[in-house]
Amino acid sequence: MNDDDAIPQFGTAMPGLIYGERPSAYGVAVNAAGRVLVCRRSRGRILLPGGGLHEGESPHQAMTREVAEETAHRVIEAAPIGRARQFHSHRISKPPVNKFCHFYAIDVVHDPLILSEDDHQAVWLSPHDLVSSLTFESHRWALEQHFRQRRRG
Predict the structure, then answer these.
(1) In the prediction, which pLDDT does 131 show?
(2) How many domains does the chain have?
(3) Residues 125-148: pLDDT tens digits?
(4) What pLDDT sits at residue 153?
(5) Of all helices (H) and strands (E), which one includes residue 84?
(6) Contacts of 45 (CB under 8 A, 6+ apart)
(7) Which of 6, 8, 46, 131 is most deeply packed, by most CB within 10 A?
(8) Does residue 53 contact residue 25 with C-beta atoms inside 8 Å?
(9) Which stretch of 14-23, 40-49, 56-65 has the lowest confidence by average pLDDT?
(10) Helical ranges in the chain per DSSP H
């Protein structure tokens, strides 16, 4: 079995669209109260902090950079959760992509010296609320994987 065969695919490819692959990385941070760090974006979107890799960047480096940019939190520890793919074609002025997502369980600390991006609001939400409110199926999957791994570990 090919390693890629085990990577779940989320979303639906729209007929007639050509999807480019977009490597990306996201973090799942859970605080002492059991709440998960997410980004609230425009149009009510709620996402795990993270995003696309820059040229020459590893998934871990991209996740660390993106978490800081989007939440003003510094990653102090990270462990892989898993990988998934997510079709995404509703991007204004950007071509459709099949995101190749790397997910990490992370510990973070707020850093008042980091300025987060204006269009991202960092919020801590309960996992129960996130089951229905996370924008992407792959992010819900990663959250479920994270809590499943914590129960086993």
Answers:
(1) 83
(2) 1
(3) 999 889 889 999 999 999 999 999
(4) 66
(5) strand 73-88
(6) 135
(7) 46
(8) yes
(9) 40-49
(10) 59-71, 127-133, 137-152
Burial 4-21 (b: 16+ CB within 10 A, else e): eeeeeebbeeeeeeebee
Over the stretch 21-40, which tens digit does the pLDDT of each residue have?
A: 999 999 999 999 999 999 99
- Burial (0-12, 13-18, 19+ Cβ within 10 Å), 132: exposed
Sole residue written with tokens 């490819």: 13
Q: Does a structural domain hold residue 94?
A: yes
- Which residue range is the domain that position 138 belongs to? 20-152
Residue type, 49: P
* CATH number, domain containing residue 125: 3.90.79.10
CA angle 132, 115, 53 (to 5 degrees): 65
Q: For residue 59, give both structure tokens.
A: 């998934």
Whole-number Å distance between alpha carbons of 94 and 88: 10
Contact indicator for 136, 47 with CB cutoff of 8 Å: yes
